[in-house]
Amino acid sequence: MAMSATDIEKLIKAALPDATIDIRDLAGDGDHYAANVISAAFKGKTRVQQHQLVYAALKGGMGTELHALALQTSAPTE
Amino acid sequence: MSDNPVFDRIREEVTGNDIVLFMKGTPVFPQCGFSNACVQVLTYLNVPFKGINVLEDNEIREGIKQFSDWPTIPQLYVKGEFVGGCDIVREMFEQGELREYLAQKGIEAAAAE
């Protein structure tokens, strides 16, 4: 089971419509990605909380269909 | 929500030890690249930590994900507080925040070279 980059992007966009998302496929196996997500929703949140927002967007896919997502999150710089 | 019985065991571990790394494998034989990365960071900082091998305890392996509301392993705890997974530990380390965070918690890390 795996997730495609477009699946991941769609899920994140659905939860964070303003997000800019840069996904890189690390292994070509649909299981290991790196993603840089920028969204205003992260403003004032800790890194843990920011990542939890992204994991929630993936609706349980993280750690199941998706083995690894090296995540970097930040709020847009004004 | 009834408390998951394994939560008590987890609470004991994270409050009974300053630094706890829930990981795949052991500090000497990590069995996952991300777990190994965290071990390397803690070893470089030369801070004592307890590695808990979730591969040997499926109850903990699933329970810790609910306990922390975090879907993956490894997970780092310092003085009972969830710090993050591999990405966050690595990012904090690279930005010098981890050493500072540990110092705030009264844990002295090795001096930076």
Q: What is the oligomer described by this structure?
A: heterodimer
Secondary-structure content class of chain A: alpha+beta
Name the chain pair whose interface involves the most residues.
A-B, 13 and 15 residues
* Biggest β-sheet strands, sense, barrel of chain B: 4 strands, mixed
Q: What is the general shape of chain B?
A: globular
Q: What share of residues of chain B is helical?
A: 40-55%
Q: For the residues shown, what is the average pLDDT of chain A?
A: 93
Q: How many DSSP-defined strands of chain B?
A: 4
Low-confidence stretches of chain B: none
- Unreliable parts of chain A: none
Structural class of chain B: alpha+beta
Q: How many extended strands of chain A?
A: 3
Strand order of the largest sheet of chain B: 2-1-3-4
The domain count of chain A comes to: 1
Mean pLDDT of chain B: 94
For this structure, the CATH topology of chain A is GMP Synthetase, Chain A, domain 3
Task: Using the CA coordinates, give the radius of gyration of chain B.
Answer: 13 Å
Our estimate of the beta-strand percent of chain A is 25-35%
Radius of gyration of chain A: 12 Å
CATH superfamily of chain A: BolA-like
Give the tags.
heterodimer, A: 78 residues, alpha+beta, GMP Synthetase, Chain A, domain 3, three-stranded mixed sheet, 2 helices, globular, B: 113 residues, four-stranded mixed sheet, 5 helices, 4 strands, 15% strand
